[in-house]
Structure formats: C-alpha cells, structure tokens
Amino acid sequence: MVYTYAGVKLFEKEMIVIKTIAKGIGTLVLVTGIAIGDLPNTVHPGFTVGTVNLGSVQSTMGIDFLSNGDMVWLTCQSASGYYGGTSPAATTTDAVYIVSNVLGTPAVRKVADMFRQPSGVVVANSQVYLAARDGFYQVPNLVNPANTATNNLKIIDMPVNNVWHQWMFCPMFYNGRFYAPYSGTIVSGGPSNTGPSSIYSGAFLSWDPAGGPISSYTRYNGGLRSPNGGGMSPSGVFLVSDNQGSWLPSST
Fold this sequence. Notes:
Layout: E1 3-5, E2 8-11, H1 14-23, E3 27-31, E4 34-38, E5 58-65, E6 71-77, E7 95-100, E8 107-112, E9 120-124, E10 127-132, E11 135-139, E12 153-157, E13 172-174, E14 177-182, E15 203-207, E16 218-221, E17 229-232, E18 238-241
Antiparallel strand pairs: 1-2, 3-4, 5-6, 6-7, 7-8, 9-10, 10-11, 11-12, 13-14, 14-15, 15-16, 17-18
C-alpha cells in the first residue's frame, strides 16, 4: 500500500508503518483517514504542542474535556511500573488532573488520586468517571476537594480485579450508558492461551451510571482475546482494538 499526503509519497509498504510504531522511532498521525509517518521528534503541522509539567515521570492513560473547555487528564505511575500482574497498591501518581487554559498557558490542579492502575477516563453529563483496576469510579468534586485520596465514588466493581491484564480501556458514554471492552485473561509473561477468569473476559460490556452488582453488566459480545482500547464513531458505532495474543492466524 502507498501512503501519500498532499501528493507526497510517504511509505510504500504498510509494514514499514507498523515497524515504525512498534520500535518507537516515529509517529503515526491520522488526518482525515490518511496514515502519515513523520520523522522522529516531529509533529504534524495541524497540531499545536503545549507543555504541562507535573514534575515527575508519569504515563497518560486518558484525556477528555469538560463542557467549559477544561481538559481532564488521567495519569498513572510511569510505564516501567505499569504491568499486567496482580492489582497493585494505589499511588499518588494514579491521579486525575484538571487542566484549564489549554490553548494558552495551562494551569493544572489535581482533583483525585490513589487509584489502582487507571486505564481510561470519560466525561458524562459534566461528571468525570474513570476505570481502574478494581472498579469504575466517579470523581465527585472537580473544584476544591478536601482530600484527593478520598475524592472518589465507586460505581461498580470490575468483574475480576486480581488477574493478569484485566482492565477496561477507553470507557465510553452513549445514550445514557457506559461501554468498554474488558481485557481477556493473560498469564505471566503475556501468553493468552489460558481459560477465562469469568464470563466477562474478552467481552464488550455496558453498564448503567447508577452502578450495581457485577451481575448488572450487560455483556454484548465475547470472543475478544485481549482488547486494549476502543472508540466510538459520531453515529454511535463502537470500534474495539484487539491483541492477537497467543493465537496464530492461518495467513502468516
């Protein structure tokens, strides 16, 4: 496949783009459906880059925006400490920040922390919600919480919270309900050729904002190996990215 942008040929083989992403030596930018591989440390001219310094190395696990334009920024401990093993202890770097004046000189304030490996954030009805290793939470106070460690309300538990790689990545809100892919079961070292930890492993789930017991999850489908993200089109079509895991396709 030939990738072009503005009449300029960028790559002739899709595999080059894939290797570039995997090795971390370039970027892949999607602009109106065109894949663009840029040189290292360059940014597409369609983007404006700003800096928000938290003073320590942290990983970004999700962003969303409030109706007033403020950005909701979800972080976790640095990638070197973010692993797929059993559920770790909560830390102060597993946190939610509100970033105001995003297009000017950003101002940052932490509103919640002490979560366990958060994996996605979503704004729904002007409220902030996030998925963590042990449950799905609301952050009640976005203005002046007295204690960031307790500024959370668990809506629903995760189906299983102490099994390798059991996360809900990229939660979404649509027509009054939350949706997210739930990772399949992975064993130590990364193989996925193991039995499910529950009927929810590798499934696309939905749940009500009011929460409830684990049995209140709606299981729309199963059969995913290890979905690590998802998204929704403007028309409400859900898309899920899946990992191949230990499965070996016939067309290798």
